[in-house]
Design goal:
Number of helices: 4
Order of helices and strands: EHEEHEEHEEHEE
Distance between the termini: 30 Å
Structural class: alpha+beta
Largest sheet: 5 strands, antiparallel
Shape: elongated
Number of strands: 9
Radius of gyration: 19 Å
Strand content: 35-45%
Oligomer: single chain
Helix content: 25-40%
C-alpha cells in the first residue's frame, strides 16, 4: 500500500542524507520526496511517499522518530489530507492540433506557461490521477519533455 509521510525536520546539512540513508539502509524505497522550508526559521517540511504494509511503515516511522534532527512524523495515509503534485509538460503543438490541446488544458484547469512556434509548456497541479490522465491524453500529440514534483500534503482542518 502507498503511504504519504509528513516529516518536520531541523534544516541543517546532512538531514536529507540521513533520512534517505535510513530508507536505503533498510531496503525501503522512496517513491517521491518533496522538501522545503517552513515559516519557522531553521525548520523544513518533507513529504515522503513510500510503499509497504503496515508493519514496514510502522518500522519506518519509528526509525525516523529516532533521528535527532526529526521533530515530528505523521503518516497521512489514513487521515483526511490534501495531497497535490505539479508537473510541467512540453508538448508538440503544431497549428492544426493547438486548439485541441488548449481545450484539454482548459478542461483540466491547467495553465499554459510557455508558448513556442511548435510547442506549448503546460503546468498541471492536482492529485496523481489527474496528472496521469492529462499525460495519457497529451501523449498522442508527442510529449517532448516532462518534469514532475513529488507529492506535497497537509492534514485537512477539522470540519464543523
Amino acid at each position: 500500500m502507498r503511504h504519504v509521510l509528513s516529516v518536520l525536520v531541523e534544516n541543517e546539512p546532512g538531514v536529507l542524507s540521513r533520512v534517505a540513508g535510513l530508507f536505503s539502509g533498510r531496503g525501503f524505497n522512496i517513491e517521491t520526496l518533496s522538501v522545503g522550508p517552513t515559516l519557522e526559521k531553521g525548520v523544513s517540511f518533507m513529504t515522503i511517499t513510500t510503499t509497504g504494509d503496515e508493519q514496514i511503515i510502522e518500522q519506518i516511522v519509528k526509525q525516523l522518530r529516532k533521528l535527532i534532527t526529526v521533530i515530528k512524523v505523521v503518516d497521512l495515509t489514513e487521515m483526511d489530507a490534501v495531497k497535490r503534485e505539479m508537473a510541467l509538460i512540453k508538448v508538440n503543438a503544431e497549428d492544426a492540433k493547438r486548439a485541441e490541446i488548449l481545450r484539454i488544458v482548459d478542461i483540466f484547469r491547467c495553465k499554459v506557461v510557455d508558448v513556442g512556434i511548435t510547442e506549448l509548456t503546460i503546468e498541471v497541479t492536482g492529485d496523481e490521477k489527474k496528472i496521469k490522465a492529462i499525460v495519457n491524453l497529451l501523449q498522442r500529440f508527442g510529449i517532448k519533455e516532462f518534469a514532475r514534483t513529488g507529492t506535497v500534503a497537509l492534514k485537512r482542518s477539522m470540519q464543523l
